[in-house]
Amino acid sequence: MRPHAPAVLAGLAIALGVVAVIALGTGAVGLSPGEVIAVLADRLGLGDAPANHVAIVWSIRLPRALLAILVGAALGTAGATLQGVVRNPLADPALVGVSGGAALGAVGAFVLGAPLLASASLGRWIVPGAAFAGALLASRLALRLARVGGTTSGATLLLAGIGIAALSGAGVGILVYLADDAALRSIAFWNLGSLGGATWPLLAVAAPVIAIGLALVPHLAGPLDRLALGELEARHAGVDVDRVTRRAIAATSLAVGAAVACCGAIGFVGLVVPYLARAALGPGHRALLPASALGGALLLVAADLAARTVVAPAELPVGILTALVGAPVLLAVVRGGRASELLA
């Protein structure tokens, strides 16, 4: 870990806290940071705040902010982890089939599960459940296909993931062709990504799954550092490459599957945030992983804040804003002549 890494991590954590407080106070009813903190203190039994302020922050804005933090951390950490496994800084969850499997599950629910979606008790869980199941099945299939001769390598995993993503895309295309107008609108909105469905019940289901996925990742920091030298070198250094690969895919599939299930497809977070963290802190995963988690959370909270305010009272899909941020960063890297470093 580089000497300035603790300062960078602390700065990211402080920035995340500041942006989160601003997000909690921003909306049709504006609240100052002091009023937001008073609401949080009220819920902890440490103060008293107006009931309407408590309802706005606690019931509407806080679940959304917390979901943005969790999803951003999941996408950023997953990107850094997968890039370490396949030793390619351009890898992200989409390249190992996780996002494609989630999309296929969600679109299948929209098109084939219309009667269930109409159910008051089951409807809100059908699409997230189908997306999560699709993500897990896709990652499991990628691992199985990538296992050749009793071993699993990052290169074969990447190729298997690309193939599964292509098949998932074809399946989505077929389902879109069969969909009616109502389903098409739902599919289009889901594909753009949104945090608008955040509620405490949804958070209660998603948070433990994402937390488990994130908790499994820090233990992989050392093996991922040695794996960066090459699979053969890592094996000579005592790294069980197969085991590390399986654990990395399991952890990222849990976290990303739950994130995509809740919010839809949100791109570029898992690609751009680890790249910026690596540029600031170097390739060591002990600093890179927490920096990617904090950076992903910060980016998504800020993007969601912008999504709610740029065209208020309407709301932009947050996936559009992450693409507007991420794509120029990637193009700037190419323009700056550093594309060869990424592809090396």
Task: Write a structural description.
It contains 16 helices and 2 strands. The longest helix is centred in the first third of the chain and has 36 residues, at 51-86. It is mostly helical. A two-stranded antiparallel ribbon has the order 1-2. Helix 6 packs antiparallel against helix 12 (241-263).
Strand percentage: under 5%
**Which homologous superfamily in CATH is the superfamily?**
ABC transporter involved in vitamin B12 uptake, BtuC
Q: List the uncertain runs.
A: none
CATH topology: ABC transporter involved in vitamin B12 uptake, BtuC
**SS content category:** mainly alpha
| Overall number of strands | 2
Using only C-alpha atoms, the radius of gyration works out to 20 Å
Distance between the termini: 22 Å
Named at the architecture level, the CATH assignment is Orthogonal Bundle
CATH class: Mainly Alpha
**Number of alpha- plus pi-helical segments:** 16
Q: How much helix is in the residues?
A: over 70%
In the sheet with the most strands, the strands line up as: 1-2
**Mean pLDDT score:** 85
User: Main beta sheet, described?
Assistant: 2 strands, antiparallel
Shape: globular
Number of domains: 1
